[in-house]
Amino acid sequence: MLMDKAEIVISGGHGGAGKVSFGKTETSGPDGGNGGDGGDFYVKGSSNLTLLNQFATEQNFAAHDGEPGGQNQRTGKRGRDFEILLPVGTTLTEISTERQEGFVTEGQTYEIKSIEDRFLVAKGGLGGRGNWEFRSPRRTTPTYAQSGLPGEKRKFLVELKLIADFGLIGLPNAGKSSLLNELTNAKAKIGNFAFTTLSPNLGNLKGHIIADIPGLIEGAHEGKGLGVAFLKHIEKVSVLLHCVSAESSDIKRDYELIRRELGEYNKTLLSKKELVLLTKTDTVSPEIVEEQTKILKKLNKNVFTISIHDYEQIELLKTKVLALL
Ligand SMILES: Nc1nc2c(ncn2[C@@H]2O[C@H](COP(=O)(O)OP(=O)(O)O)[C@@H](O)[C@H]2O)c(=O)[nH]1
Ligand SMILES: [Mg+2]
Questions:
Q1: 177 CB near ligand 1 (under 6 Å)
Q2: Which of 110, 141, 221, 307 has the smallest C-beta neighbourhood within 10 Å, fewest atoms?
């Protein structure tokens, strides 16, 4: 199961307490140091789509507290920062924030758009001042220090919006799931029946999401099979990877059938960038591959031949696909 929604509470570290202490001799006066600041809390982008699963068992996270001040004006150590990784495509929407001055709800959002994104989402609390800082000509022996402030405590709704860059389309058995697994870290079931899954399988190719969109058959746009449920996902992708099996006895028909279903559902789908993939090329002779390629090129000049057993060709395809963005 891929979790795509959770509520979590994130806190900055508590500031360390200031110290009350006095030097060893009667005349040396106050020398309590300040507490260290609490650590800050960050979220950072990652290409791992399953990261929201970490919230199934744990919803509360905090950066480390600052250490208390010491004698001899020694400042406590700052608390260590904390970072959690979230998949690219995640939005954090603030539900509520507790700050020192009270309870504030702001609805601030953070959007993780790339693996380079890193946001400070909860500041650590300030360390308390030690009694050395409170000395003055009038108060030479202050017997108090500050206790340090709590870090920001923020509750967020974390949502992963699966906006895929690429959509693998084609008839059942065209090799979509197999290709997804080869191009990405996905583990989609191979050779399963067309209608067993209710959400598209997703994989990650260098930070870009590829969705394997099953269920397209003749009449899908009218609600045949489960195609309609999947057609809406195609609307969001930037590039279509249209798989047509080299085993087909009528490759033109296979290609046009899918195009027709797309167009009947929504004409704008037809103007999306499309790379045609002649798949399973290892199952037929080179002559047939050549012939099938020729037929496809008449329909779309952007054709690439592929077999999941051809490692070099798979690597080439990765490069080619990324260049289409
Ligand atoms: N020989 C060979 N078999 C393939 C290739 N790609 C997929 N297959 C097989 O074709 C069948 C359908 O593949 P699958 O990926 O499930 O197709 P999907 O229905 O489009 O997702 C499975 O039995 C795969 O093992 C390929 O490049 N070469
Ligand atoms: Mg499949």
A1: yes
A2: 141
Task: Enter the tokens of residue 31.
Answer: 């020398």
Q: Is the CB–ligand 1 distance for residue 178 below 6 Å? A: yes
pLDDT digits 0-9 by tens, 108-161 = 999 998 888 999 999 999 999 999 999 999 998 999 999 999 999 999 999 987
Measured in Å, residue 98 CA sits from the centre of ligand 1 at: 53
Residue 8: strand pairing partners: 156
Query: What superfamily in CATH does domain 166-323 come from?
Result: P-loop containing nucleotide triphosphate hydrolases (3.40.50.300)
Question: Which residue's CA is the closest to the ligand 1 atom numbered 11?
Answer: 191
| Closest ligand 1 atom to Cα of 306 | 27
3-state SS, 206-236, equals CCEEEEECCCCCCCHHHCCCCHHHHHHHHHH
Of 2.70.210.12, 1.20.120.450, 3.40.50.300, 2.40.170.20, the CATH number of 5-160 is 2.70.210.12
